């Protein structure tokens, strides 16, 4: 029975390598999204080159301005999404396969890429997802036509909820107005 148990446990432990599929797919998705966002920036810059054209009417210039701002926000959203995929892939690798020695020994490495637990990975991903949601709400707010007081109230409510989300995220890091380690 001991040999069977050893073989079975060995098989169970090695089954964690299936996570490599998610790691490789996440990294491929991150690269693809970074590529798409960068191509969007190239096209964005090429389209706004005629912004200073004196023949543009004020209405066309305003439309170009608004479209450009919206596209910039979309690009930021794309880069943030690519970052989520990058953090997810690296985090899954560190949790299930091995620590990334390059990240731990590099001065340029950010602490965001060093994942200690599944909760740590979830917290880091949640912060980036909150940023994506904030950027998306900002993008929608740019397109919002405020026609009534209720529309303005809805916008103010959305801004207040964003502020609350940021406050709670910041407070969950131990920065909620108390000194770290106070009272211990």
Structure keywords:
single chain; disordered C terminus; mainly alpha; 184 residues; 0% strand; 6 helices
Strand composition percent: under 5%
Order of helices and strands: HHHHHH
Computed CA radius of gyration, to the nearest angstrom = 23 Å
- Span between termini: 50 Å
Query: How many alpha or pi helices?
Result: 6
Low-confidence runs of at least 5 consecutive residues: 176-184
Q: What percent of residues adopt helix (DSSP H or I)? A: over 70%
Number of strands: 0
Apparent shape: elongated
Structural class: mainly alpha
Q: What's the number of domains? A: 1
| Biggest pleated sheet | none
User: What is the residue-mean pLDDT, rounded to a whole number?
Assistant: 84
Give an overview in words.
This protein has 184 residues and is mainly alpha-helical. The protein has one domain. Helix content is 76%, strand content 0%. The protein has six helices and no strands. Helix 2 (19-48) runs antiparallel to helix 3 (58-96) and helix 5 runs antiparallel to helix 6 (149-175). The longest helix is centred in the middle third of the chain and has 39 residues, at 58-96. Mean pLDDT is 84; it is low at 176-184.
Task: Provide a concise account of the structure shown.
The protein is mainly α and 184 residues long. The chain has helices at residues 2-14, 19-48, 58-96, 101-105, 118-143, 149-175.
């Amino acid at each position: 029975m001991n040999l069977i148990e050893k073989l079975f446990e060995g098989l169970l432990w090695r089954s964690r390598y299936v996570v490599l599929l998610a790691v490789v797919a996440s990294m491929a998705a991150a690269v693809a999204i970074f590529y798409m966002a960068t191509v969007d920036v190239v096209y964005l810059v090429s389209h706004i080159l005629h912004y200073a054209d004196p023949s543009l009417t004020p209405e066309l210039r305003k439309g170009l301005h608004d479209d450009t701002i919206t596209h910039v926000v979309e690009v930021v959203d794309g880069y943030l999404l690519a970052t989520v995929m990058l953090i997810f892939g690296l985090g899954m690798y560190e949790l299930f396969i091995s620590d990334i020695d390059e990240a731990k020994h590099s001065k340029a490495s950010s602490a965001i890429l060093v994942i200690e637990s599944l909760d740590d990975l979830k917290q880091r991903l949640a912060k980036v997802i909150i940023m994506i949601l904030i950027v998306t709400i900002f993008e929608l707010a740019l397109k919002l036509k405020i026609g009534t007081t209720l529309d303005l109230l809805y916008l103010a409510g959305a801004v207040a909820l964003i502020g609350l989300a940021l406050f709670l995220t910041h407070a969950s890091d131990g920065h909620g107005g108390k000194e770290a380690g106070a009272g211990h």
